[in-house]
Each structure stands twice: as C-alpha cells, then as structure tokens.
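To whoever picks this up:

The parser on our side crashed when reading a file containing two proteins. I've narrowed it down to the boundary between the first structure block and the second sequence. Both blocks are reproduced below exactly, byte for byte. First block:
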Amino acid sequence: MVGFLLLSHGDLSNGLLSTCECILGIPDKTAALSLAIEDNIDLFERKIREMIHELDDGDGVLVMTDVFGGTPCNKCSLMLKDENIELLTGLNFPMIAAAYEKRMTGSCLKEIRDYCLTWAKDGIISMRERLNLEGRQ
C-alpha cells in the first residue's frame, strides 16, 4: 500500500491530517510533519527520511508539500534519487482526498500522483464563476 506523507511550514499538514480524520476516517499509512521556525533543518530532514522509511512497505510514498521552493519541498527533492517517493507541491484537501480514493483501487504510486495532480487543480473553484454571478455584486 502506498504511504502518504504531508509536509508543511507551520501546522498546515497536521491540520489537513486532522481534516482527513474528520471527513475520511483515520487514514492508514499516513503521517504529517510540520516545520516550525525554531526547528533544526538537518533534524527535520532526518525526520522526513525516517517517516518515509516507516511508511514505505515497498509500494513507495507520495509526499505532499505545501509550497514549491520551501524547505519541506527542497529537502524532499534531494531524496527523489534514492528514495521510492513521488513529490507534489501545493498541498490541499482535494489532493489528499484524491490520493485516498485512488489508493483504495490498488493503484501504484505514479497513478496516484497523476490522479492527485488533476484533482488538486480542479479543487480550486471560483464560486462566483461557478454560479454564473460574474459581474454581479
């Protein structure tokens, strides 16, 4: 089973994991790690690697980070060569929900990654546009 690791600055990843528990139930093989201002970056990188090893039972780990170019993303980017991971940025709830949905079908890591890319983008909706209220105040 593909593991999921949510990484962010501040408490975003922990908050999204809590949201998952409320809406999707307690997720299997999922962990969250948040980077605080006072955290040691080298220790944070070691924790990421440890979590990846805990979550990977041979099917790999989908790592989802909050922002491209931030420390969580950058540290994981260095691991793409030697760890069985896929890395996505722009972490949001539709991305996580899509990951769970696709994982339940027995999909592989790359299939889950591709499915999440679509759903994460499609989950961003302008309600004014969707309700055809453009130009109305």
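<<boundary where parser fails>>
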Amino acid sequence: MLKLEHIYKKLGNFTIKDISFEVKEGEYFVILGPTGSGKTIILETIAGIYNLDKGSIYINNKNLSNVPPEHRNIGFVYQDYLLFPHLSVRENILFSSKVKKMSKSSAEQALLAICEMLNIEHLLNRNTSVLSGGEQQRVAFARAIITSPQILLLDEVSSALDPCTKEVFQQNLKTLHKNLNTTTIHVTHDFNEALYLADRIAVMNNGEIHQIGTPEEIFKHPASEFIAKFTGFSNLFKCKVNDGRAILSNGMKFVVKNNKVVNEGLAAVRGENVVLFLNSKTKSFENKFKGRIVEVINQGFIKKVIIDIGIELNSFVTEKCIEDLELNPGKEVYVGIKDSDIQIL
C-alpha cells in the first residue's frame, strides 16, 4: 500500500538515511524511537511537506515523490494538534473538506458521522481555545479523517495527555482504527503505547531504522543493544557463548537457547523475567541462583528489586510479591531465569 524506498533527507545538521519500509493496507504501523531520532521527519516526507534528497515514496504503486501535499490524500495529526484559533470546532473540522472540495452535503454528512464516532457533537459551536487537551485531540482527529484519507499520520498524539486520559485515548484510538481500517503510521517514544497499538513496529535512532517486526519480535528479540535498552531490557551483561552457555566476564554461566559460538556478545534479560522465590525446590528453571537483596526501589505499582548473585540483577515485581515474600534489603532469595528469556545480542 505504502512503500518508502531508500529515503534520504538532510535538514540542517540532521539526516534521515536510507529509510525503506512497506506498510500494508489497513495496518497500524508504529515508528518507535527516542526524541530527536527523525520520526516526525519521516511523517512529513510521506505527507509531502519536504522534497526528498533521494529515494521514492509509493502509494498503491503510484510514485508520489513529487506530488504536492494537497493531492496525496493523507491525513495528519500533529502533537500539538494545530487547530485554528479563529475558527469554531465545526469550522476546524470542515476545513480540510473545503481544501479537498467535497460537496457541502457530503461534508456535513461526514461531519455528523465522525462527531458521533468521537463523541464531540456537543463541541461543534465552541471556540477551540476553551477545549481541554483531550477535546482538542478529538477535534484534530475529526479534521484529519473527514475526507477519508488513504493514510493517517499521527505524530506523538498522546504525549501531552495525563496518564488516565492517555490510557482512555489509546483504547479509543484502537477502536477507531478497527472501525475505519485506515492505514495508520504513528510515531511515538512510548514503547508501552507501541506495544498496545501496533501491528508492526519500526525502531528508529539517529535517522536510521534499526529493526522492523511485530511487537513480540521487537520486545522479546531485540536486534541490538540500543533496542534492548530502549525497550526495557534492564539486565545486560558482556559474555561469550559456547555450547548453549553464556559465560560472563566473572566466570558466571547462564544456560541459553542460543547454541551458536559468540566470542563477544551481550546476554540480555528483561527484569520482569527474573523470578524471585524463597524455597529452591519450589521452582524449576534452567538458571537458578542464590542471592541477597541489595535494594528495593519504589516505581509505583511495580517495584524494582536489585539482587546480588555474584553480579547485580534487576527484577520487577508487584507490591503483592514484595509483601508475600517479605522482600527487604539483606534478605536471601533465589532467582530463576528461563533459558528462553535470555537473549544473546
């Protein structure tokens, strides 16, 4: 449906380099990366805001590289929504329908359907300056989709919302995509958001795409140290791998699924896959170690427990686990890790 081939674009001292990927019709495709990685520039090149230095953009096999933005049939919602302050909500939403020269009756019919879907009928005659952040967001969405775009581009659209509003918005966004089935490209630095919404994810850093895959592939099998760190792998250790054993620099060994010989690698383990227990006979793991708790760090509903087993491991557990096992600094515990939960990078 959408294809980017070897896209290059230099803006000041920053360049997006050799960006190539395809997005299927109806797919929810997320570009995930830290702030300043070039995610928004990719959206703006797709929308036609920038001319490409090199490369091509295709939609349904038609090369749109030199087609003006107004003729690409693409909807765009920016992080700060960019509503027109001198226009009412109704006028804001209908603005793009006038640009696309929809008939008045078609535009009004689409307006009513979209406003009902987004539950903003009661806002139509209001000035945008009196809207809440969530209301502004829904109006911006309505304006972007009223012309039934082939592709919807979303630029960090939930970053300004409080946690409660953000969660509701993500649920609504998933429902909206299911109902409209519009091909969507969403950029974010929030990996939890990407995990919840995406059919596939492209991880980006410093103007380059580092890995593309399903959420499970990205979050369970990162292709690099950068991706592992960015997606929440809190345990990373230099190692050598031989005959299903990852040998750390201090001589400690992990049993791993990887049977390849690796002279210089990293053993990566997510904190939530480091299991704590008190009786060594109650759990069966390929990797089991005795250790002592160094520190328990409050991170809200989830606690980070640091355990010394000869190396320091991070484990993420619930408040109930802390209470049930009476976990406190200095307490001896056992640590279990499945061999399949240790990734070799």
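After patching the parser it read the second block fine. The chain has two domains: 2-225, 271-339. The chain has a mean pLDDT of 93.
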